[in-house]
Structures are given as structure tokens and as C-alpha cells.
Design a protein that fits this description.
By secondary structure, the protein is of the alpha+beta class. The chain has one domain. It contains 4 helices and 6 strands, in the order αβαβββββαα. It is elongated. The protein starts with a helix and ends in a 5-residue tail after the last helix. Pfam families: DUF3016 (PF11454). Keywords: Signal. InterPro entries: DUF3016.
Length: about 170
């Protein structure tokens, strides 16, 4: 009986995603981004984790649109929330990400919203930033999601630019 519940849940999730638009995200010249570096650890792995998580977020946003819509995004710059500052231990130096209200996230990307026929419904360049974030008020939620403020910023842009605008 438990197996049926799991299968039903999986089918429901699959059918829900089949009704959604899609997103294709590409990352251009990642080495030149303002700040996509880890505080500690392997840079390549961290960059890939950030890119994967933000790509997933774009894809989740597309569940608000019909299945005949595709959002094509080319990310050209990322500046994560906070700033890396060095700390010095006994035998090595590491970095820690310090978050202050002046270190808000930013992201630049080109986008195109197209339908199944390839007709461009909307396109442009976006330079988004989240200057209104309040780290102290959301500290417990942020600890569970390292990119909370970046995702919040993208959600706001998506609602304002894609969802709440009529197709051209």
C-alpha cells in the first residue's frame, strides 16, 4: 500500500511539470563574474552548485507559464550576496562570506521568451539586484538556502517582467 502512495506522488509531480513552460540557462564567461567564489572549498564545485541551483530556480519559475513557452537565459554576471573577506588561522588562510545590507546580490543576463513556433514574445537584457533584502529578519530561513536572496531577486524579476506582462 505504501508503494502505491509513492508512485501516485511521482506521477502527480510528473504530470504537473508536463504542464509547465521550460527554461534553458547558459552561463557565459563564468571566470569573469563579479563574485561566484566559495568562502571555503573547491571553486569549480561551488560554481557548478550555484549555477545548478539558479538554473533549477529558473526552471521552477516556468511552472507558472503554459507549456508552449520557453525562456532562454544567458547569464553574463553574478554577484552573490555578501562579500568574501580573509580570515587567518594557524597554518592557512581561508575566507568567510560576510553579509551586510550594502552587499546585496546582483545578476546580469540576456533573456528571450518564445512560444512553440519560435516567435519571440519578449526579450531583453536584465540587470537585476535585490537592494531590499533584510538579512537579520530572515536569518533562519537563509541558513537553509545559501542562495535565498538571489532566488528571491529572480522571482521578483520573473513576476514583474514575464508573468505580469502581456505577450507582444
Amino acid at each position: 500500500m505504501r508503494v502505491q502512495g509513492i508512485v501516485g506522488t511521482v506521477l502527480l509531480a510528473f504530470s504537473f511539470s508536463a504542464l509547465a513552460g521550460t527554461a534553458e540557462v547558459s552561463w557565459k564567461d563564468v571566470d569573469s563574474y563579479t563574485d561566484i567564489r566559495p568562502a571555503d572549498g573547491f571553486r569549480d564545485r561551488y560554481e557548478q552548485k550555484v549555477m545548478d541551483q539558479l538554473t533549477e530556480h529558473f526552471q521552477s519559475l516556468m511552472t507558472k507559464l503554459p507549456e508552449d513557452r520557453k525562456l532562454e537565459v544567458t547569464v553574463t554576471d553574478v554577484d552573490l550576496t555578501g562579500r568574501l573577506e580573509p580570515t587567518f588561522g594557524r597554518s592557512s588562510s581561508n575566507y568567510v562570506r560576510i553579509v551586510r545590507e550594502i552587499d546585496f546580490p546582483r545578476m546580469a543576463f540576456d533573456y528571450r521568451l518564445v512560444n512553440n513556433s519560435g516567435e519571440v514574445l519578449r526579450e531583453g537584457q536584465a540587470n537585476v539586484k535585490n537592494m531590499r533584502f533584510n538579512y537579520d529578519g530572515l536569518a533562519s530561513r537563509v541558513r537553509r538556502n545559501d542562495l535565498y536572496f538571489e532566488e528571491e531577486m529572480l522571482t521578483r524579476w520573473f513576476e514583474d517582467t514575464i508573468v505580469n506582462q502581456p505577450d507582444e
